[in-house]
Design goal:
With 472 residues, the chain is an alpha/beta fold. 38% of the residues lie in helices and 14% in strands. It is built from 14 helices and 17 strands. The strands form five sheets. It has a seven-stranded mixed sheet with strand order 4-12-11-10-9-5-6, with helices on both faces. A four-stranded antiparallel sheet has the order 13-14-17-16, covered by helices on one side. The protein is elongated and about 80 Å long.
Length: 472
């Protein structure tokens, strides 16, 4: 590490006047000069910069001008500041583009650390247990398992899921009410085709789901979200359905309040509407037993949608819908006469995996792992950024970090300069939620997925995250 201070000439270079003369904003000019000095290599990673008072005196600038420039460049990730160590050039001097928004495919750099939410660490897939289930399932498979597929899905898996979901999520359904699909997205496509629109949806959610519904002619309008989940009092008779994440609002993290759970069922009964319950991580709560699914309150007005993408792997392409009786035939008809999406052999394997108890063991293992990851995140913030708060309940595979107003974009940019892929909360906001409607719940934040990194890489990822956070 370079310990000697550099002087103003080394920072600005011989081609720039030291007094930063000109008509532009002097703080902006200084920031541009510092960025260029880092980019060009004149300031190597780890180089210690002069105290802002000294540099201000050298350049004839106000102290606050230099202090503000340093602070902004720290937030952007160009510089790093630690108490007792002064301000230095950040160890990572080459920016990377966040994986969710690459500038161009040929130039987008692969991030060093991935904290984008959405999937478990692929290295923890239970290979041995899955292989054992596959062998047993294939040995016992009936001949019709190797013929044309049934659009309902394999009966073995539907029976296994009916028992598991009743036991773990409080779901009330016979196997005949379960239709298998290739994942939550496939289930939403089928429901959009059968139910029609418009739908209401939480003002924070997956843009992919909103786009998917729109591509099938179903528009969505936003419902406000607060600490008690979706504000279901905003539902109207015009809404054909409402898409909710009651167990763990995605991505903000709060559960749907008991009063609102009852209220949304009352709305569905009174209007003939449909509650679509995305139970994307309902099994992963760490501070208490998971709350049962809303579907248990009224199986005739709620569809529960689930998959194995969080508990096992998104590559398996196995999901399910627990449907009201009146929707089973229309959904199966929309799906088609032959199953074209989920492998029958994988369905049989999953059925054995559930029936043998291996699925329960995997969920327990992942629950412990994710809880430990979340605790590590909270502990790192307490040490390095105690002014940053983790919102929502202790659950799932991600957490939202609440940021000071106006700092989200700079924090995402700073993370990219640290080689860290992470997303801002604004990426999940419904485009139809206007500023007036969102005034109460609008917030700045980072959506941090803590499940993906390997064990060896996770501490470094947290260090990079803490360096990217705005100062307190």
């Amino acid at each position: 590490m370079v310990n000697s201070w550099v002087n103003s000439a080394e920072i600005l270079g011989s081609d720039l006047p030291l007094e930063l003369s000109g008509t532009g904003n002097r703080r902006a000019l200084l920031m541009d000069a510092l960025r260029e000095a880092v980019r060009s290599g004149r300031l190597a990673p780890g180089t210690r910069l002069p105290p802002y008072r000294s540099l201000a005196a050298d350049l004839g600038l106000a102290r606050n001008t230099v202090a503000d420039a340093y602070a902004e460049l720290v937030a952007e990730g160009w510089l790093a500041a630690r108490q007792g160590s002064g301000t230095r050039v950040a160890e990572r001097a080459v920016p990377v583009t966040p994986v969710h928004r690459p500038r161009t495919p040929e130039r987008a750099a692969r991030p060093v650390h991935d904290l984008v939410q959405g999937q478990p660490d692929p290295s923890v897939f239970p290979r041995s247990a899955w292989l054992a289930s596959a062998r047993r399932a294939l040995a016992a498979a009936p001949d019709d398992a190797f013929g044309p597929g049934d659009p309902h899905g394999r009966p073995e898996l539907r029976r296994a899921l009916a028992g598991y979901l009743a036991r773990v999520r409080g779901v009330r359904a016979a196997p005949e009410r379960i239709v298998l699909c290739s994942g939550a997205a496939h289930g939403l496509r089928l429901l959009a085709e059968v139910v029609g629109g418009p739908w209401a949806a939480e003002e924070y959610g997956l843009p992919f789901h909103r786009a998917l519904l729109a591509s099938h002619g179903v528009g969505t309008r936003p419902l406000g979200v607060d600490a008690d989940g979706a504000r279901v009092d905003g539902l109207t008779r015009r809404d054909r359905a409402v898409l909710l994440t009651p167990a763990h609002q995605f991505p903000t993290g709060g559960p749907l309040h008991p009063g609102r759970r009852a209220a949304v069922v009352d709305w569905a009964r009174a209007t003939g509407g449909l509650v679509v319950e995305d139970d994307y991580d309902g099994e992963f709560r760490y501070d208490r037993q998971p709350v049962g699914a809303v579907q248990g309150l009224d199986p005739e007005h709620v569809v529960l949608v689930g998959s194995v993408s969080k508990s096992l792997s998104p590559t398996l392409r196995i999901g399910w819908m627990v449907l009201p009786e009146r929707l089973v035939v229309p959904v199966v008809t929309a799906k088609g006469e032959r199953e074209q999406f989920s492998s029958a052999t994988e369905q049989l394997t999953l059925a054995d995996f559930v029936e043998s108890g291996a699925y329960d063991r995997q969920v327990r293992r992942m629950r412990q792992r994710h809880r430990r990851r979340r605790d590590q995140l909270v502990a790192a913030l307490e040490r390095r950024a105690p002014h940053i708060r983790v919102t929502g309940i202790a659950a799932g595979l991600h957490a939202v970090l609440e940021l000071p107003p106006g700092t989200e974009r700079s924090a995402v940019r700073a993370a990219a300069w640290q080689g860290l892929a992470v997303e801002g909360l604004a990426d999940y906001a419904h485009p139809g939620a206007g500023s007036a409607e969102r005034a109460e719940g609008s917030r700045d934040g980072l959506v941090v997925g803590y499940a993906t990194p390997a064990e060896s890489a996770y501490p470094e990822a947290l260090e990079a995250l803490c360096r990217a956070l705005p100062p307190g």
